[in-house]
Amino acid sequence: MSRQNSLIQTLQGLETEALAAIQAAPEGDALEALRISYLGRKEGRISGILRGLGDLSVEERPSVGAEANRVKEALQEALKAREAEVTSGADEAETSSEDLTLPARHRWRGGVHPVNQVIDDIWRIFQSMGFVRARGPEADTEWYNFLALNTPLDHPAADEQDTLYLKDSVLLRSHTSPVQVRTMEKHEPPIRILAPGMVYRRDSYDATHTPAFAQIEGLVVDEGITFVDLKATLAEFARRFWGEGAKVRFRPSFFPFTEPSAEVDVKRMITRKDGTRGESDWIEIMGAGMVDPNVLENVGYDAERYTGFAFGMGPARIAMLRYGVPDLRLFFQNDVRFLSQFSTGSPP
Length: 348
Ligand code: DAH
Hints:
The protein has helices spanning about 5-25, 30-40, 45-50, 60-90, 90-95, 115-130, 140-145, 180-185, 225-240, 295-300, 315-325, 335-340, and strands at about 130-135, 140, 165, 170, 190-200, 210-220, 245-255, 260-265, 270, 275-280, 285-290, 305-315. It is an alpha+beta fold. The protein folds into two domains: about 5-95, no CATH class; about 115-340, 2-Layer Sandwich (BirA Bifunctional Protein, domain 2). The protein has a seven-stranded mixed beta sheet with strand order 1-5-6-12-11-8-7, with helices on both faces. The chain starts with a helix and ends in a 9-residue tail after the last helix. About 30% of the residues are buried.
């Protein structure tokens, strides 16, 4: 092949290669690098060929020169066109311009879990009444979970049928009440704490039970605390949480760590399916009572001087009530179609 033809072939090969690279260049810097590598005055491969024209014979020169100039102009055109595309984002415009009525792409956004929303709301109410937050370990001992709470180990709750033991006397706490003991051990009265946390039981997994669930413990200890303080505090809580018209009712009950003990029911104002307003049924929401003097003595308090009240509730149950969710398991299956209904963020 003549020198002339081989140079023309090289030029056309460079052209094909450069055009493909230009079309694939993602942004301006990449385009500038391509411009330098093909058309740069010093190192550019096309410029090199143009510069070498002088070595060619007078007959060879015109056709090679003309082809080199054509390729140079074609690449300059392509660089300019691609530059315009990458700066205007034309790539995307090209695909979405097909149908502008298509919905925008969904952007996933996290939200606070409905049970945690309930815990947060309950916490804010008690916080405004002067309670402080307390916490304790989820792996705890028989002493804190049972014995210090006046619960003998032959009590059914302490049975291996009900409680998840880790080893010997170490267990996963079956309620948040041990936080009462741990707080009183460290602090002198007055005590006014709220302690939300996870608890664990050897329980079935069905519409109303899960083996791991949240509880919220409350404890108030001071001189002169009476059952009236307990009733007033919980009645105020119910009004703040469920709105004006919410009432609480105390039914006698038994817990080893409170005396007297009560189960607390709430009656709420609700809007029925037909739109009329009315009172709900009584629904049990928590256990409560006056702290048993034995518990106060177990932490070294003077039970002649101090009295207190305590309560414990299950926020998932309260979330079921609040949102009308019939099956507890829905909260824990992590199905975003369910959970996104409780999203507090602005819609995507
Ligand atoms: N610890 C109890 C439970 O898990 C709930 C409870 C009842 C807590 C009465 C209390 C209380 O503080 O006073 O079933």
